[in-house]
Specification:
Elements (H helix, E strand, L loop, with lengths): L1 E4 L2 E4 L6 H27 L3 H21 L51 E3 L15 E9 L10 E10 L2 E10 L8
Antiparallel strand pairs: 1-2, 3-4, 4-5, 5-6
């Protein structure tokens, strides 16, 4: 189609040139590739929140198990366990590390580690035997350190640290446990 304008005539074109069409295809292709890569990463990592949540549940359960155990001067089987104000008042003083024949859940916080300040691996088990999948992919450790807490001396306060590792990530929870000895208080 030609338009006459005074002395000159010029062609009016409609449509796209081959260069414009190729540039459009390249730009759209790059955008689609970018979107597909984002979707791929999102889909690949979509299970990660579930793994993290399960690791957190394991850590919370272990911290609760340890925190609920007694922390007395005497072995909990000792008749003086709830009234002793020091280890000298015990017939069977409580030591660090499990006693022979003790199994989880242990009767004292000290039984969960072999020594203070050393991380102790602990088995993760499905106590209800309902078959939680992939529990073997998690590894847990418990570390107990004598540490003063809010005016309570370090000998009567423990910092419990539970770590659960899965893949390249680790969930760590801390909690304090103080000694229960009613005669210790004035």
């Amino acid at each position: 189609m030609f338009i006459k304008n005074g002395f000159h005539s010029r062609a009016v074109r409609s449509g796209f040139t081959l260069i414009e069409l190729v540039m459009f295809i390249v730009i759209v292709s790059i955008a689609v590739i970018g979107i597909l890569q984002v979707m791929n990463v999102t889909t690949k990592n979509s299970a990660d929140p579930q793994l993290r949540k399960q690791a957190l549940s394991i850590a919370e359960a272990l911290l609760e198990e340890v925190s609920l155990a007694r922390f007395t001067f005497c072995d909990p089987a000792d008749p003086n366990a709830e009234t002793a104000a020091n280890a000298a008042a015990c017939a069977v003083p409580e030591g660090v590390g499990p006693e022979n024949g003790n199994v989880r859940p242990f009767d004292n916080v000290n039984d969960y580690v072999a020594a203070y300040g050393v991380a102790q691996p602990i088995a993760i088990a499905d106590v209800n035997a309902i078959g939680i999948p992939n529990l073997a992919n998690y590894a847990a450790t418990i570390k107990i350190v004598q540490q003063a807490f809010n005016g309570i001396p370090a000998t009567d306060s423990l910092l419990i640290t539970v770590s659960v590792a899965y893949g390249a990530e680790t969930i760590t929870l801390d909690g304090y446990r103080t000694r229960y000895a009613p005669n210790l208080m004035p």
